[in-house]
Known about the structure:
Helix content: 25-40%
CATH architecture of the domain at 35-255: 4-Layer Sandwich
Low-confidence stretches: 1-29
Oligomer: single chain
Amino acid sequence: MTDLASATRRRLLLGGFCLCCLPGAIRRGEASPGPFASEEIAEGIHIRRGVDEDASLANRDAIANIGFIIGRDGVLVADPGGSLTDGENLRATIRQKTNLPIRFVVMSHVHPDHIFGAGAFRQDNPVFVGHARLAQALLQRGEYYRSVLATMLGSERAGPVVAPTMLVSDKTEIDLGDRLIEARAHGPAHTTCDLSLFDKKTGTLFPADLLFVRRAPSLDGGLRGWLKELAALKQRGAARAVPGHGPVSIDWPAGSTDIERYLTTLERETRQAVADSVGIEAAVRTVASSERDKWLLFDEYNGRNVTEAYRELEWQ
Length: 316
């Protein structure tokens, strides 16, 4: 790949969304919505594992871990998926498991792989839940994300931009009848609008993309903030966590070890590069390079992470 192509790709690589498979868009094929494989990781909690890839025509942007929680009185969707197709398949999976009403659809942050399935649930008239800053983030990025996804998948398969109807600025409880789900807003970290969930009945934490496992993290909010929010999440009395990317469930807080090490390395080595007057382009080639063999898609994401970290830390 040429330097110009690499630079263009980095500019368009926004939080797990890339254009590397755009030429395949002319070969679009349609498939009827249907249930996909999911795993019940705790009582009433069903999770679909996303593929460890960037968005493409082949995977329909089904790259994030998404799922649902079944309560006595209804269902909560924990991220609706990365495209209308992904959302329709999630809805079909829910309907395979239960006929209870879908009352809540939680959109954990602004990145496309977590939100563009929301349109599949409009027919259910749920409450669409998001961070207090999500609406503004969607105004800034939503139509751009949608247009790029439409170019890749076709406009009829991309999905609409769906705005949250319930905004969380601190924390709130969502009642499914026999279980309470705590939704908590976080400061700038992975993005500027991260929302986590905690199912009190089973002790299951949904940190979404505040937690990456095996797949390289993407920094789009604040490095110091991410480390702060991760430390706070580690104090939750959770038995398990559902990463935004990676296995459907991991032990908590033990499962945070790798991402904490990566983010700490990123911060330490970026600070050192700034202190040594190493330019940002040189820093991109060296900072956190010791982590390369520990993460899938490392080369696709680390350079952008270093750039974001450098801009955050250079004037401190």
